[in-house]
Here is the input.
Amino acid sequence: VSRKVEGGVFNKPLLPVGVGIMTGLGEKGWIVARERTAYDQIFQTLEQTDGKITGSVAKKELIKSKLPASELGKIWKLADVDRDGNLDIDEFALANYLIRLKLEGIELPAQLPEHLMPPAKE
Here is the structure.
């Protein structure tokens, strides 16, 4: 006989500290900011126009992850939050964060969860 556990935290649909793609949900601050220092350093070395890198510049960097092009395409769609075809420093950090999750075997969602939206884009 299997019993369903109910009550307390078991009935809350969104717990403060999630796992996988939901890590950071309900926390103060942008979860990506915790590991963005290295991403920001890489971004600063890339050719930029008005503080953004083009898709071709980003591609040269993101393919270093060795993820298939189909996965990198999904990551691009999630990270290019303002849909301008370029990545700013926050979007680049987000793309790299999503790459890390994917490399850890975490499935990426079709839409970017709200808690992963860069604060400047909200």
Remarks:
- The first strand starts at residue 52 and ends at 54.
